[in-house]
Amino acid sequence: MKTNLTWLNDYLDQAISLDQQAVADLAEQVARTSVEVDSVTTLAQQQDGLVVAEVVSVEPHPDSDHMVITQVNIGEPELIQVVTGAPNVAEGQLVVLAKVGAHIVNHETGELVTLSVANLRGEVSHGMLVALQEIGFDNKIAPKDFEAGIYVFGPNDGVHPGDDALVALGMTDTVMDTDLTPNRADMLSMIGTAYEFGAMLNQPVTEPAFDLVEYETLARDQVNVVIDDASLAPKYALRVVNDVTVEDSPLWLQKILWNAGMRPINNIVDITNYMMLMYGQPLHAFDLDKLSGQTIHVRRAMADEQLVTLDDKTRELRAGEDIVIATADEPLMLAGVMGGASSEVDHTTRHIVLEGAVFNPSLVRATARRHNLHSEASARFERGVNWDATFTALDHAAHLVDDLAGGQVARGLVVAADTDYDTVIMPLTAARVNQILGTTLTLKDIAGIFDQLAFTYQIEADTIQVTLPARRPDMRIEADLIEEIARLYGYDNLPVTLPYGPTTPGHLTLRQRQIRASRRIMESLGLNQAISYVLTTPEKAQQFAENPGEKVVALDYPMSSDRTTVRQNLLAGLLEDVVYNVNHGVANVALYEQGRIFIAKAPDTLPTEMEHLAGVLTGTRATSNWQQDKTEKPVDFYDMKGVVAQYLAQMGVDEVRYEATKRHQNMHPGQTADIYSGDVYLGFVGQLHPQVTQAHKLAPVFGFELNLFAVMAQVQTGVHYAPISRFPQMSRDAALLVDDTVEHADIVALIRQTAGDKLVDIQLFDVYTGDKLPAGKRSLAYTLTYQDNDETLVEAEVNADFERVTAALIARFHVAVR
């Protein structure tokens, strides 16, 4: 909220000093007591040398068809010659002149530049006539487009040649920009902010007064209202103003708006925005003559309804959910969010309807999010407006329309709903306050703080009964009142005590330690950690999921179309990371991710969250150089499987086996295996399907995904250090002729099951198939390595063990030992 301190002083008994040091001290106090202060600035910044000038004459430039030569009066004895290309310059205008030596902001670069005498096609120009955009105004707040030309003061703006233009335009007003928390809806208004500053400075607040004059024409004869559902708008009323003249607002009103970050439109629209800034109560103005019929309906949107809003966008309304203000024929506006173009007030408008209401905040919030249409009005309705100020703001706006637009206020307020505010009286004792804050405040001290806040109260014995005001919708429970006492008393003044009681050292749970160990192991194996978005598309959410046909978990109000669904796998996100890296010239990628996936359950039930671990490899194992083989070796299935095997071994998972599978539709059907520990399924490893990688123009990508909960459940004991044996090894080779249906993993499993405890390693060093072997056969050659940690092995013991192994292989798989 941009708070103009000059305007704020209108409501305080003692004006705030606008001295630079005083404002800095005030900002510090606000930050300590109330809300965060983002900045304290002025629109002028470091600009100077800008004055009001009267255009005395305009002559064509002899050597240009678009520039003119003007003589301007700035209150000095001599006129000043200025050459300009402004399309709207004319004699008699009061404009802004940047004199020679002036410092102004370059509207293209934002830099401060110094003006000097210029020679424009042979004619000397002593300064520049400027548009507001050329002296620091953003296009969003400037009342006219830059192409319209220079800024021209109105005849009633009260400026004279030679006046400081920065002061005349309100550009020297000090503006404090505060970062409000969602609960401080009261500070979205100048009056609410005045009460806050008054409480900090211990000053009373004077709210604005006005005298509304009504004419003989009855408002109810021109318009009436029907509310279909009372829950949509607990307060709703209209005022009619006839015979208005729509034109530019006076300068004092425009200054207030652009210092608040709003663009002046016309006097009617500007009055509604002025009331919103003053009271925090959004209002809306309809062109009465553009309404089809006299009846206005407050209802929910119907099926297939559309509305063109004031930003010229067509909105598809959601039936039964969006609140609309409508005639019998068409919707006029999204209630509490934005008006519609069909009833917009413009320079042809003669009769207007002013609307003041309190709309259902939940429905306004949902509509704003649904249409991605967050306006100043919706921000206030969502957080809560001052229930008691709704009709006051409406009457004040009608008074200003009478004053600034020459309108005649029709007699009577057309009230459709006027639900009483649910006033809460909260009891509070000094003992309770001191118990929470650790203070020694008396009831008189507490009452003094409520006087500062302008809260009404009654003291009964040792209890103070506080009436929670409608202007503070955040006040609802006892803790809210105690918080007000604490911040006005001063957080720095609260007593400081050391914590007491038994202390316990913090530590990680077993599951947390295992998850951290998983990340360390992955990094030790050469993979870098990646963190992907949890939110994705429905297709990617199920791309590598175990059960891709299951229902996904979708968000009701997603941030964007590609972040609508929570993920059911990690590999899809890692694939996006691979694509990004490859597209940026990184061909060799080794990534892992540890994170949660979400599995849908029954409707209206939270999904099941599971910890997963996934990794990807693509490219080559190592970049070749002069010390290594010049042939780069691409990664393959066994590199990825080796990562998984090492990880599971270091985690302490035993009896790991791999079963070839074709059930993962986005994985290569010939290079994918499911991973088990005993009979427990842990995950899968393999090559991503070529169709998937070719769609992204990638080299083969290999990946795995493990269920960390399942992995951790299979960790039976911790992994302990085993000393390296100092005794020699002995090895035996065996070449086995086996059926080609027998898998290597089954052979290794039988060897380990049959051999004794001296077998330390099994290596497959040769696979042979060819015409010299019988049909359906292949030759597998293994090296079995034996070692004892305590003594030198005896050859007879190794031979006996090797014979036992070969006998078991012959019996189980009918191998022939070659």
TrEMBL record:
Subcellular location(s) per record: Cytoplasm
Pfam family, one: FDX-ACB
All copies of domain FDX-ACB, residue ranges: 725-818
Gene3D superfamilies, sorted: 3.30.56.10, Bira Bifunctional Protein, Domain 2, Ferrodoxin-fold anticodon-binding domain, Nucleic acid-binding proteins, Phenylalanyl-trna Synthetase, Chain B, domain 3
One GO MF term attached to the UniProt entry: phenylalanine-tRNA ligase activity
Residues holding Mg(2+): D474, D480, E483, E484
Entry keyword set: Aminoacyl-tRNA synthetase, ATP-binding, Cytoplasm, Ligase, Magnesium, Metal-binding, Nucleotide-binding, Protein biosynthesis, RNA-binding, tRNA-binding
Domain annotation TRNA-binding: ranges: 44-166
Essential cofactor(s): Mg(2+)
InterPro entries (alphabetical): aa-tRNA-synth_II/BPL/LPL, B3/B4_tRNA-bd, DNA-bd_dom_put_sf, Fdx_antiC-bd, Fdx_antiC-bd_sf, NA-bd_OB-fold, Phe-tRNA-ligase_IIc_bsu, Phe-tRNA-ligase_IIc_bsu_bact
UniProt entry tagged with the keyword Protein biosynthesis: yes
EC number of the protein: 6.1.1.20
Main location: cytoplasm
Catalytic class of the enzyme: ligase
Record domain B5: where: 421-496
Catalytic activity annotation: tRNA(Phe) + L-phenylalanine + ATP = L-phenylalanyl-tRNA(Phe) + AMP + diphosphate + H(+)
SUPFAM superfamilies: Anticodon-binding domain of PheRS (SSF54991), Class II aaRS and biotin synthetases (SSF55681), Nucleic acid-binding proteins (SSF50249), PheT/TilS domain (SSF56037), Putative DNA-binding domain (SSF46955)
Cofactor note: Binds 2 magnesium ions per tetramer.
Highest taxon, organism lineage: Bacteria
Family, similarity comment: Belongs to the phenylalanyl-tRNA synthetase beta subunit family. Type 1 subfamily.
Annotated NCBIfam families: pheT_bact (TIGR00472)
Assembly information from the UniProt record: Tetramer of two alpha and two beta subunits.
Name the UniProt record assigns to this protein: Phenylalanine--tRNA ligase beta subunit
Source organism (scientific name): Leuconostoc holzapfelii
Lineage of source species: Bacteria, Bacillati, Bacillota, Bacilli, Lactobacillales
